[in-house]
């Protein structure tokens, strides 16, 4: 349904509808989508059915409200207790609240769940039976953290986009993490794949009301695998996240290629080109972000003072949230201090002009 159709017809039940505006990070501009909560209920039941005490931790307030509405609509409102958490709730008193709540299920984004774990005691974590996660890759660092923090929990994973809904079936136990079978009726393609088969994920799907979308670019990278699965499917796709593209999500922050370019332009007398490697580091029960920048400079060697100046300027000027620089997030113990390395060898220009890389291992 288009926005014009939505406003042209009176609502039969306003409680069934959600209007959502995306940020346009898939390079297709801002998108306004209208969703009917009464459609796709079978997809949601895999997450919400029989949940008695559920934590929702999407990070953003609007996401947690939408999930709470879905729980209220498709769970049993008389038995299902919901504890919704976002970034503003991360305070010492949250530990006692979660202990009293004793969740059986957690629904959310992997990166925000990692931020929440220091507030969940090992005893409470042992009582969690299911982790319903989506929206991001589960890296090896996160998988290790989740396994140790929730030893008795199984996964319920779903690949979806807020503007078009589910793209995958729910968890197939035969597939590795970050692999999915396409939802029945959904067609996936890879645009402009590189030498490994990785490229932009395109999705074709019929939405509620019979509206069709064709080759919609999600903004994620993926790779298609055509192998027979014991579950009966013959096709799976591997989600690679925003790896090697225009932005990377990391520990609740957004690393934008355009933002790195903006800061780099101000230092064009210091270096000619750069590459960024982002990764996650597990520090006891806390996942922190790590950024390493390699800079290319013609002629003069890069001294320690040279790399220190670049690290200081990137840290002070690079915004990773709308209001926080890298220096702010280092001070908040969310990121490790930035490291900078000099090279006098030009960077190899590969399949695409990629400057941001997410280190998975």
Automatic annotation (TrEMBL):
Under Gene3D superfamilies, the record lists: N-terminal domain of ligase-like
InterPro entries hit by this protein? ANL_N_sf (IPR042099)
What name is this protein filed under? AMP-dependent synthetase/ligase domain-containing protein
């Amino acid at each position: 349904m288009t926005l014009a159709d939505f406003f042209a017809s009176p609502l039969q039940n306003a409680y069934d509808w959600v209007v959502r505006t995306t940020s346009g990070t898939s390079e297709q501009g801002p998108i306004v989508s209208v969703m009917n909560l009464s459609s796709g209920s079978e997809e949601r039941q895999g997450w919400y059915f029989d949940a008695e005490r559920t934590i929702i931790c999407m990070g953003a307030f609007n996401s947690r409200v939408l999930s709470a509405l879905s729980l209220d609509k498709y769970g049993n409102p008389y038995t299902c207790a919901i504890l919704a958490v976002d970034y503003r709730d991360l305070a010492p008193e949250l530990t006692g609240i979660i202990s009293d709540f004793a969740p059986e299920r957690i629904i959310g984004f992997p990166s925000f769940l990692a931020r929440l774990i220091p507030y969940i005691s090992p005893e409470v974590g042992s009582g969690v039976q299911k982790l319903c996660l989506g929206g991001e890759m589960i890296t090896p660092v996160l998988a290790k953290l989740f396994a140790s923090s929730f030893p008795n929990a199984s996964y319920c994973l779903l690949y979806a986009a807020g503007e078009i809904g589910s793209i995958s079936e729910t968890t197939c136990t035969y597939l590795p993490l970050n692999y999915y079978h396409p939802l029945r009726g959904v067609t996936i393609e890879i645009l402009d794949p590189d030498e490994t088969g990785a490229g932009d994920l395109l999705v074709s799907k019929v939405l509620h009301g019979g509206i069709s979308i064709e080759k919609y670019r999600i903004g994620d990278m993926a790779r298609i695998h055509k192998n027979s699965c014991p579950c009966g499917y013959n096709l799976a796709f591997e989600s690679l996240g925003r790896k090697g593209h225009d932005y990377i999500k990391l520990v609740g922050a957004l690393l934008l290629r355009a933002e790195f370019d903006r800061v780099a332009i101000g230092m064009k007398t210091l270096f000619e080109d750069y590459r960024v490697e982002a990764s996650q580091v597990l520090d006891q029960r806390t996942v922190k972000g790590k950024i390493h920048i390699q800079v290319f400079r013609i002629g003069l060697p890069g001294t320690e003072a040279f790399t220190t100046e670049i690290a200081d300027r990137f840290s002070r000027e690079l915004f990773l949230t709308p209001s926080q620089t890298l220096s702010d997030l280092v001070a908040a113990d969310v990121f490790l201090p930035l490291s900078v390395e000099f090279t006098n060898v030009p960077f190899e220009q590969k399949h695409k002009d990629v400057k941001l890389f997410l280190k998975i291992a």
